[in-house]
From TrEMBL:
Main location: cytoplasm
Motif 'HIGH' region positions after renumbering to this chain: 11-21
InterPro entries according to UniProt: aa-tRNA-synth_I_cd-bd, aa-tRNA-synth_I_codon-bd_sub2, aa-tRNA-synth_I_CS, aa_tRNA-synth_I_cd-bd_sf, Glu-tRNA-ligase_bac/mito, Glu/Gln-tRNA-synth, Glu/Gln-tRNA-synth_Ib_cat-dom, Glu_tRNA_lig_a-bdl
Name recorded for this polypeptide: Glutamate--tRNA ligase
Lineage: Bacteria, Pseudomonadati, Bacteroidota, Flavobacteriia, Flavobacteriales
Gene of this entry: gltX
Length: 503
């Protein structure tokens, strides 16, 4: 890559950032970092009616939590600022006027009622109404009106829009890094609105002008923008600007594989579709987030990278640096990627094993306030023993409660299996053996107890099952000798005594 790569993630602050938006941001970030380029955040808030308070900060927090922070953006390294489109609106009228002057755009004064009439009229005739070469001379615009009539309408302050004048009988040859060559017949394109009389541009004009002024080299965005590609190419041509390279990412599909993933799917099937928790300020409805549900950002990033991209190898576990090194837009699929809630859990389980036990112990304490006074070093040792069975920190208590509280009941099925006629006698002898172990370590416990079992020619199950049941209350948990070592000699003796009295 010879040119200085500059890419942008340009969400609208209309609510929480969907998982699909995070994937788009991630692919932009990976591409930028692979070529030592710049990752830009631009807030596309031209539609002020849909603006939601707090959404912009949510987007920033989500990117930071995922470990993919922007290089340039609102309040950060503002070389090409401002980065909110609402703060750039003074720029766009000039470019809209340029397009009118060059004959590539025109004023349209049609009322909403007139356009609605034409749409219904076409529907009744089994047709689709498209505002373009086919009918624009029959409508109220600067192509059908005289210059004097146009001036009079503008001077009178009549509402208007500025539309792009899409050409007739041309074939556009477009390129997309992921989808290859694309041909478009201009006869089927409508004359999109670029600018409104309220002084605000539409997405189409604002995004082209901003991408040009911010020197964006590659536009990596979702498949839903593919229908706009023809217009955007034509706008670059009309301005006489060099167009960036385009890459349209595949949709993220429902777990069933049919249709685009939505919040409703997450609600229905019990998984989040947002990176962070979001509270709707109008309804107070709380939407779950991956962070609050106990997922690690590394797991989420690794999972999202595989939604539509494939490294071409069997490797599935990639840290961020490895993703940057391996990522290629040419290896992104055209077809939609099915969202698999179980797969992200698989990734989370993997990254759980890589987490520092001390950090996990602190998180465990926050989960269970009753453990606040327990020594963190002790909790870290417990976590080290049980985390291989855990997917989330909130799994820890069920897997480890017996390290902190002696069992008050014993699993009935396990008791019948573990306690036989001679079990009490065996456990009493084990208890006496433990009492006389001076060096109370895992190794000493293993050597002495296993040695006693071997010397007395007793089956290991006859000793280890009731021993585990006495310590845990069930037949679950890590190595019995590790449990005894961590709870200590006195607690081990107390639990054996309690089990013998109860069972």
């Amino acid at each position: 890559m010879t040119k200085n790569v500059r890419v942008r993630f340009a969400p609208s602050p209309t609510g929480p950032l969907h998982i699909g938006g995070v994937r788009t941001a991630l692919f932009n970030y990976l591409f930028a970092k692979k070529y030592q380029g710049t990752f830009i955040l631009r807030i596309e808030d031209t539609d002020q009616n849909r603006y939601v308070e707090g959404a912009e900060q949510y987007i920033i927090d989500a990117l930071n939590w995922c470990g993919i922070p922007f290089d340039e953006g609102p309040g950060k390294n503002e070389k090409f600022g401002p980065y909110r489109q609402s703060e750039r609106k003074h720029l766009y009228k000039k470019y809209a006027d340029e397009l009118i002057a060059s004959g590539n755009a025109y004023y349209a004064f049609d009322t909403a009622e007139t356009l609605d009439f034409h749409r219904k009229d076409h529907e009744e005739k089994g047709k689709t109404f498209i505002y373009n070469w086919h009918n624009r001379l029959k409508l109220s615009n600067s192509l059908s009106l005289s210059a004097e009539e146009v001036k009079a309408k503008l001077d009178a302050g009549e509402d208007y829009v500025i539309r792009f004048k899409s050409p007739k009988n041309e074939t556009l040859h477009l390129k997309d890094i992921i989808r290859g060559d694309i041909k478009i017949d201009t006869n089927v394109l409508d004359d999109k609105v670029l600018f409104k009389s309220d002084g605000m541009p539409t997405y189409h004009l604002a995004n082209i002008v901003d991408d040009h002024l911010m020197e964006i080299t590659h536009v990596i965005r979702g498949e839903e923008w593919l229908p706009s590609l023809a217009l955007h190419y034509q706008l670059y041509k009309a301005f006489g600007w060099e167009a960036p390279e385009f890459a349209h990412l595949p949709l993220i599909l429902k777990p069933t594989g049919k249709g685009k993933l939505s919040k409703r799917d997450g609600d229905k099937m019990g998984f989040p579709v947002f990176p962070l928790q979001w509270t709707d300020s109008t309804t107070n409805e709380v939407s779950r987030g991956y962070k609050e549900d106990g997922y690690f950002p590394e797991a989420m990033v690794n999972f999202l990278a595989f939604l539509g991209w494939n490294p071409g190898t069997e490797q599935e576990i990639f840290n961020l640096e490895e993703l940057i090194k391996a990522f290629e837009l040419e290896r992104v699929n055209k077809s939609g990627a099915r969202f698999d809630p179980d797969k992200i859990k698989w990734f989370n389980h993997h990254y759980m094993q890589e987490q520092d036990n001390q950090i996990l112990a602190e998180a465990f304490k926050k989960e269970r306030p009753e453990l606040i006074d327990i020594d963190t070093e002790y909790m870290a040792l417990v976590v080290g023993l049980i985390k291989e069975r855990a997917t989330f920190v909130n799994d820890f208590w069920e897997l480890s409660h017996y390290f902190f509280v002696a069992p008050s009941t014993y699993d009935e099925k396990a008791s019948k299996k573990a306690f036989k006629e001679d079990t009490a006698d065996i456990l009493n002898k084990i208890k006496d053996l433990i009492l006389h172990i001076d060096d109370f370590t895992v190794t000493a416990l293993q050597n002495d107890i296993k040695g006693w079992i071997t010397n007395n020619d007793i089956g290991f199950g006859k000793v280890m099952m009731p021993l585990r049941l006495a310590l845990v209350g069930s037949l679950q948990g890590p190595d019995v000798f590790e449990i005894m070592f961590l709870i200590g000699k006195n607690e081990t003796i107390n639990r054996l005594t309690a089990a013998l009295n109860a069972l």
